[in-house]
Design goal:
Elements lengths: L7 H4 L3 H8 E9 L4 E3 L2 H11 L9 E3 L6 H19 L2 E2 L5 E5 L3 H24 L1 H12 L17 E5 L8 H5 L1 H41 L2 E2 L2 E2 L5 H16 L5 H14 L4 H6 L1 H24 L11
Antiparallel strand pairs: 1-5, 1-6, 2-3, 4-5, 7-8
Helix pairs in contact: 2-8, 4-5, 8-9, 8-12, 9-10, 10-12
Length: about 325
């Protein structure tokens, strides 16, 4: 199979069709133990009385566990890694929770997800080892609001991540049962992939605009007579964007392709440290990025994000 969307002649002819034939729909989901619990009517009434309020107009909840605990934060960190990896390896699709991944990347994505699921299991095991202490802390902090019945015997199995590959195409059996309905569903699927192309364009354009604006702001002017401080990530995040764009772009917008190429050319070979040390280099980069930023702003105005299509329920 050819590289996804690498050929401009084919993708610009019909990028939605190419996207439809060379990607797969993927959905990432989580099961997560909830640490917020609404107060009982009696507890809420007592709280309302404290503030001289009417109970029906008061909303109150208690936190069962301290989510700032390092063991709890480690569990959340794995979830954040999984979400970031999933979004960085896929393109948007106009149905909630679903994104498009390249078919040739399926094995690598599944392998990475398996690794992250293993890391999540290990983090949950470490959290469970701290569970008794976390409950003891909660008892001290919640006082009379503490209720042993709010807590499961163990946290094992209460945190999980799953992924699947739902079909976004009309079922073949519909062709025989109702050809007209099948035709309508095919048109609807085509419209969704047209929308996916627009969503991808908008997402890339907005991300590039934010990255360029941030770098330009950090390179412009000074604070107290000294250049503004910026992190290496102001540059490296753009480099990562260029690589992801080259890998995932639907190549449907010549204007966006040109702006990405111009940005990459401006920053080609530029390292963060020389930018800090050379006022001339900073000035040159800022001046060149200004033109890119103006064009991106205009492109965002000309290509507003369209409404997301929803499948009738």
């Amino acid at each position: 199979m050819s590289e996804l969307l690498d050929s401009r002649s084919s993708t610009r002819g019909d990028p939605a069709a190419t996207l439809r034939t060379q990607t797969a729909a993927m959905r990432l989901s989580f099961a997560w133990f909830g640490v917020q619990k609404t107060l009982s009517p009696e507890q809420k009434a007592e709280a309302a009385e404290t503030f001289g309020a009417e109970s029906p107009f008061l909303s109150a909840a208690k936190r069962l566990l301290d989510t700032r605990d390092p063991a709890f934060r480690a569990v959340g960190a794995v979830k954040n890694q999984a979400v970031a990896y999933f979004k960085g390896s896929s393109l948007p699709y106009p149905e909630p929770g679903i994104r498009l991944v390249r078919q040739r990347d399926l094995s690598a994505i599944d392998e990475r997800m398996q690794e992250l699921r293993g890391e999540l299991a290990q983090a949950v095991n470490r959290l469970d080892e701290q569970y008794v202490e976390l409950k003891r802390t909660a008892r001290d902090r919640l006082g009379r609001l503490y209720a042993e019945g709010d807590y499961p015997a163990s946290l094992a199995g209460l945190f999980a991540m799953e992924w699947d590959f739902p079909s976004v195409e009309p079922p073949d059996y519909l062709r025989q049962l109702n050809p007209e309905l099948y035709r309508q569903e095919c048109e609807r699927a085509r419209a969704r992939f047209d929308e996916a192309v627009q969503l991808a364009e908008s997402a890339f354009c907005e991300e590039l605009a934010k990255l360029v604006e941030h770098l330009s702001e950090r390179l412009s002017g000074d604070l107290g007579g000294k250049p503004k401080i910026f992190r290496d990530s102001a540059v490296t995040n753009l480099e990562e964007f260029f690589d992801r764009f080259a890998k995932l772009s639907v190549r449907s917008s010549p204007e966006l392709d040109d702006l990405v190429a111009r940005s990459r050319s401006i920053l080609g070979g530029v390292e963060p440290q020389p930018l800090r040390e050379s006022a001339g280099l900073r000035s040159r980069v800022v001046n060149q990025l200004a033109g890119v930023q103006a064009s991106l702003d205009q492109l965002l105005v000309d290509r507003p994000r369209r409404n997301i299509l929803r499948r009738p329920r």
